[in-house]
Design a protein that fits this description.
Nucleotide-diphossugar_trans, 8-stranded mixed sheet, 279 residues, transferase activity, Spore Coat Polysaccharide Biosynthesis Protein SpsA, Chain A, alpha/beta, 9 helices, transferase, Glycosyltransferase family 2 protein, two-stranded antiparallel sheet
């Protein structure tokens, strides 16, 4: 390991320690969310992430505003592998539900099918979330009630001929408040979907597993745009802290890679072929 890499690793370990300390001492008096429909936090996970999952769940259950429900969706075959640390959080308000295994799509699709008349907020299972994470999404949604709201977003870039530039040329992790057709939500930071924000085809598992199986961010962006909804980036730039050991198995190695030859570009090309480029 180079000196630079060693220093970066040491800095990451320090941040992990600080976040765990903050979480263990986090005491918040959660306030009502004030939205016009129920607010549900929804996420999924799978066995390689279970050892650290309780940390993320604690982050989500200790927020400055209260969700009406926090649901963890687990594939039927994985339910028996849930740890006691995860199961015990049911006493703190966590709901655990079994569902079909549609991989990363489990964080949103089952909740949409169950009841689309709710504000649904997705989170990843491997990250630290601040106590005001949910509050930031909700407040931004109140400012733009029809928008899909994201803590982390990229800006899609178009070529001179109007076609979509390769994913690696997009402006990544934008810093400012932004809303528009070119703003692309990334799920890792957390995304809020107002009731009926997505096209009716959003829950078509046969279709998304056929044309976009490994890029749910791409799928949900298209489903929002097909329903004439924009993404609103809360701002400023979001820093992501992932727990130790959670990246041994991830979609990152599939979706990122050489320009025009990675999972995201293949998914985008498939979506354009199926639906066209959103206007």
């Amino acid at each position: 390991m180079s000196q630079k890499s060693w220093f970066a690793h040491l800095k990451w370990l320090y941040r992990i320690r600080a976040c765990k300390q903050e979480l263990s001492g986090r005491g918040v008096a959660a306030q009502p969310h004030g939205l016009d429909a129920p607010l549900v936090v929804s996420l999924t996970s799978f066995p390689p992430r279970f050892p650290q999952l309780h940390l993320t769940l604690q982050c989500l259950l200790k927020q400055s505003i209260a969700a009406d429900e926090t649901i963890l969706w687990i594939a039927h075959r994985d339910m028996a592998q849930l740890t006691q640390e995860i199961l015990s959080l049911q006493d703190a308000g966590l709901t655990i539900r079994a569902c079909d295994d549609t991989r990363s799509y489990k964080k949103l699709v089952p909740a949409l099918v169950e009841d689309p008349n709710r504000y649904l907020v997705t989170a990843d299972d491997d990250c630290y979330y601040r106590a005001d994470w949910l509050e930031g999404l909700v407040n931004s949604s109140k400012d733009s009630p029809k928008a899909v709201v994201s803590h982390r977003a990229h800006r899609m870039v178009l070529k001179a001929d109007g076609s979509c530039a390769p994913y690696e040329r997009w402006t990544k992790n934008i810093d400012q408040l932004a809303e528009g057709p070119e703003v692309f939500a990334t799920g890792v930071g957390g995304v809020l979907y107002p009731p009926h924000a997505l096209d009716a085809r959003a829950t078509d598992s046969e279709l998304f597993q056929k044309i976009c199986p490994n890029a749910d961010d791409v799928w949900f962006y298209w489903m929002a745009r097909l329903n004439d909804r924009y993404v609103r980036h809360v701002g400023p730039k979001t820093r992501i802290l992932e727990w130790a050991g959670t990246q041994d198995v991830s979609l990152r190695s599939i979706n990122h890679g050489p320009e025009a030859d990675n999972g995201n570009d293949r998914a985008i090309a498939a979506m354009i072929a199926e639906f066209g480029l959103p206007k």
